[in-house]
Specification:
67 residues; elongated; mainly alpha
Length: 67
């Protein structure tokens, strides 16, 4: 695993700490890893559901936005 630094609103950190204190997650890092995994799974599902031509068009649009 890699270590990263993130900035969170205080209320997010407090909520994560509460989940940790309640024993729902063993650590704040684990809670964030699970939340991020769920987010990525949901967001990337959209890409998996696209046919190949639609996916290529979407990626091309994203690349053009950055230029």
């Amino acid at each position: 695993m890699k270590i990263i630094t993130i900035n969170l609103p205080e209320k997010y950190l407090a909520a994560i700490q509460t989940l940790n204190d309640l024993g729902i997650y063993p650590s704040r890092s684990e809670a964030i890893r699970i939340a991020l995994g769920d987010f990525l799974e949901e967001e990337l599902k959209m890409y998996h559901d696209l046919d190949n031509a639609s996916f290529k068009l979407l990626m091309k649009k994203n690349i053009n936005k950055k230029e």
